[in-house]
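Reading group handout, session on sequence-to-structure problems. Before we discuss, look at one worked example. The prompt was deliberately terse, the way you'd type it at a terminal:

> structure Cytochrome c domain-containing protein

The input record follows.
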Amino acid sequence: MTRRLALVALLALTACPRLDPMQRQQKYKAYQESRFTADGLAMMHPPPGTVPYGPPLEPAVATGRGPDGKPLAVMPVKIDAALLARGRLRFDTNCAICHGVLGDGESQVALNMSLRRPPSLHLYRDRPDGYIFQVISQGFGLMPSYAHLTVQDRWAVVAYVRALQLSQHATVEQVPQEARQRLEKEGR
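And the output record:
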């Protein structure tokens, strides 16, 4: 009887989750402080040269720069309704908080920023598309990097920013003829 009790006790101890070394090991979770890293955060960016998962991207698509090292003048991805919808979603989630839903730099967060308010994105109409992509990827001034967004999402945000800029600065001549006629009939 004692052997059976000893065997049952031994089996119970081996199945005990508290003895699992994976649960007892020292580890850090994302967003925890760490005394081992220079910035004091446990979560780190992948080391330089890390190979991303998935098919390789063309350098121009991945960096927003051409072979000459200058920002691309025009986006290297196809612009369609799905890309613009994705760009709007990502913009509203990540950018509108500071830059405002119209991209004009007017938001509640911006009003409370004491050092420097986010600029209106409409001031950057003359900048190449690759420049905006690089700012999203690397950050600029007080704006942090948004490289955690996929490359496709960053280009989608660029497309949506261009749509916002066009919506605020389009001329009558840029409106398609059939839309102009419809507006004239409605008396606008």
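Points for discussion. First: The chain has a mean pLDDT of 87. Second: Residues 81-99 form the longest helix (19 residues).
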